[in-house]
């Protein structure tokens, strides 16, 4: 189920070399991922510290805030450090806190892309991901403006989020994709089949909510392993994901510089095969 010593970098699209421990910026928003983050100064510090600590993959979305999160990233980090890859997403309406409504209307997607370019202050989005496939609109329609944006050089790479293998294959008939972002962690492995498919196909797999350390039945095992490495349970959960598959890119989020450093230290933990297997059961 796992490989020899994992590489800590991954080439997105076979070209952009990124550190597999990245940063997800969703928490740097108001309550319910809505509105501006309460302490903007601290949020800027966290983003700057992430990049200073070697993070070169940051994940955001038009829907975070909405819009506020992308602007915050540009305010904190623009002009961007050479090699920093910023991934964003489009395709959600946000009527209010914790309220997410898929919108695959081509005009809406086009405005998402144009808005993201503007807010992030870039000419090209490194990785643009369709946040959700809208069940009410054919994905072929939704992706028309995405294909146009790729052809115009406004988007370098395209990814998908919360999709099954059939949906990925349907989209790949329209345009190349390089990544899939689905819910996956030590405790929730419902997308195991998608992870294995992406690994076989040379696509990146970006688990969202990677820090969940799983069911109570694992608690004692994790605690035991954490003690051995003088690590937190969250670090062990991340180390397990890094070992699970070499195409996994991690984007743990946090509002705290201390937690940020803690998360990044997970890259130093190399679980043994035995530890990995015992957590995988």
From TrEMBL:
Keywords (A to Z) from UniProt: Oxidoreductase
Gene Ontology terms for molecular function: pyridoxine 4-dehydrogenase (NADP+) activity
EC number(s) per entry: 1.1.1.65
Stretches assigned to the NADP-dependent oxidoreductase domain: 20-279
Enzyme class: oxidoreductase
InterPro entries reported for this sequence: AKR, Aldo-Keto_reductase, NAD(P)_OxRdtase_dom_sf, NADP_OxRdtase_dom
Pfam families: Aldo_ket_red
Protein's name according to its UniProt entry: Pyridoxine 4-dehydrogenase
Origin species: Mucilaginibacter terrae
Lineage start: Bacteria, Pseudomonadati, Bacteroidota, Sphingobacteriia, Sphingobacteriales
């Amino acid at each position: 189920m796992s490989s020899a010593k994992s590489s800590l970098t991954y080439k997105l699209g076979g070209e952009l070399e990124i550190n597999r421990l990245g940063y997800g910026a969703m928490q740097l928003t108001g309550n319910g991922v809505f509105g501006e983050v309460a302490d903007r100064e601290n949020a800027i510090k966290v983003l700057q510290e992430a990049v200073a600590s070697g993070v070169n993959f940051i994940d955001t979305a038009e829907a975070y805030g909405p819009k506020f999160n992308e602007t915050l990233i540009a305010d904190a980090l623009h002009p961007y450090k050479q090699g920093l890859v910023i991934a964003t997403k489009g395709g959600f309406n946000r009527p209010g806190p914790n309220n997410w409504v898929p919108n695959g209307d081509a005009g809406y997607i086009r405005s998402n892309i144009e808005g993201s370019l503007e807010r992030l202050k870039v000419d090209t989005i490194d990785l643009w991901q369709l946040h959700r496939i809208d069940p009410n609109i054919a994905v072929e329609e939704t992706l028309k403006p995405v294909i146009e944006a790729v052809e115009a050089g406004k988007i370098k790479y395209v990814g998908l989020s919360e999709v099954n293998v059939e949906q990925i294959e349907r989209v790949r008939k329209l345009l190349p994709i390089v990544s899939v972002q689905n819910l996956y962690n030590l405790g929730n492995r419902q997308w195991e089949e998608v992870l294995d498919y992406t690994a076989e196909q040379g696509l990146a797999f970006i688990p969202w909510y990677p820090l969940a350390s799983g069911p109570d039945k694992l608690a004692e095992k994790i605690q035991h392993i954490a003690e051995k490495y003088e690590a937190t349970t969250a670090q062990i959960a991340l180390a397990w994901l890094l070992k699970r598959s070499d195409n996994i890119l991690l984007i743990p989020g946090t509002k705290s510089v201390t937690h940020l450093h803690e998360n990044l230290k997970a890259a130093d933990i190399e679980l043994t095969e035995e530890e990995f297997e015992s957590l995988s059961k």
